[in-house]
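Ops channel
N.P.: pipeline sanity check, posting one input/output pair.
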């Protein structure tokens, strides 16, 4: 049977209750899909799942900025992060908006014909660096574009670490006709207006960090602040030295893709006690090179932490550590 899940057994849609069930219901309404693996794989940690869902809903789906532009950002951030799963998914969603040529140009890494879309591609691709170029969107749209970029820096890391590369069975997303058909299947939901703020219902009762100034008091800020708190709490699964080593390594990182081999990991984690190294290694991979998370990394961590919830929370901690590093580069 075709499965997109690598290491986590998600809560099935029909068996979901409480916060998880509400997330599934909102995603079905927002995207027109009952099963979305990237959110399902987070279901063992409902607070993390709810927070990233709310951020995606309030930044990508709701608001006044053009959906096409935000899908361009989501797809290009995913390309910069080498997340083929998310690139394919958001190429299909660009097809769903009717922007067929644009979708294929972004997929191939070609500059879009429209100068505005080309500027968004350049900006989104640069958000991994130390300083992104000037924002190519008006101030009133900044919260939506920044929220979308940061949401997908997080989601790309979850997808790369915990899902396979295939959005469709047999890798059918590699065929243009399949991408167009997938977009057609969700076109009605994609073009339907989404009311801001309703995604915050799934966050009821969850703690939150301080809201960012760039979010300008919008629901995007509440969702982002909740994600920082929920995902950041995964750092409690590491000892103090391991947690500090991961954060220091990400803070010093230039945003580039690490060299092949493990030397960079060994250097970053040299002072970490041996018992904490599997956790620190997995978190640092999730932050800087999630596509390199492998069976051996997960197996070493599972020896002491067999639960899916702990694995999700550890990967989420690595992901949010990277996101907070990128936030400093892209906020106005």
């Amino acid at each position: 049977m075709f499965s997109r899940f690598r290491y986590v057994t998600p809560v099935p849609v029909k068996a979901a209750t409480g916060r998880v069930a509400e997330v599934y219901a909102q995603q079905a309404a927002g995207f027109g899909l009952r099963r979305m693996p990237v959110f399902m794989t987070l279901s063992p940690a409902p607070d993390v799942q709810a927070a990233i869902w709310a951020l995606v809903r309030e930044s990508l789906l709701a608001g006044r900025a053009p959906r096409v532009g935000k899908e361009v950002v989501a797809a290009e951030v995913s390309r910069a992060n080498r997340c083929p799963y998310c690139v394919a998914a958001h190429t299909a969603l660009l097809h769903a908006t009717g922007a067929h040529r644009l979708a294929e140009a972004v997929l191939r890494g070609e500059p879009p014909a429209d100068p505005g879309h080309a500027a968004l591609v350049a900006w989104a691709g640069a958000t991994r660096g130390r300083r992104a170029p000037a924002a190519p969107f008006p101030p009133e749209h900044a919260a939506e574009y920044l929220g979308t970029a940061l949401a997908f820096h997080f989601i790309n890391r979850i997808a790369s670490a915990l899902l396979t590369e295939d959005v469709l069975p047999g890798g059918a997303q590699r065929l243009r006709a399949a991408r167009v058909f997938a977009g057609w299947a969700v076109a009605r939901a994609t073009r339907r207006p989404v009311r801001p703020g309703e995604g915050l219902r799934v966050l009821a009762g969850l703690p939150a960090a301080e809201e960012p100034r760039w979010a300008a008091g919008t629901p995007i800020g509440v969702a982002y602040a909740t994600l920082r708190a929920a995902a950041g709490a995964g750092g409690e699964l590491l000892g103090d030295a391991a947690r500090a080593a991961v954060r220091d390594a990400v803070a010093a990182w230039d945003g580039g893709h690490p060299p092949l081999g493990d030397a960079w990991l060994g250097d970053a984690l040299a002072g970490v006690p041996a018992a904490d190294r599997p956790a620190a290694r997995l978190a640092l991979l999730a932050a800087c090179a999630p596509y390199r998370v492998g069976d051996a990394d997960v197996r070493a961590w599972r020896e002491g932490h067999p639960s899916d919830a702990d694995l999700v929370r550890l990967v989420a901690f690595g992901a949010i550590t990277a996101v907070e590093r990128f936030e400093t580069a892209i906020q106005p």
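N.P.: looks fine end to end. The chain has a mean pLDDT of 93.
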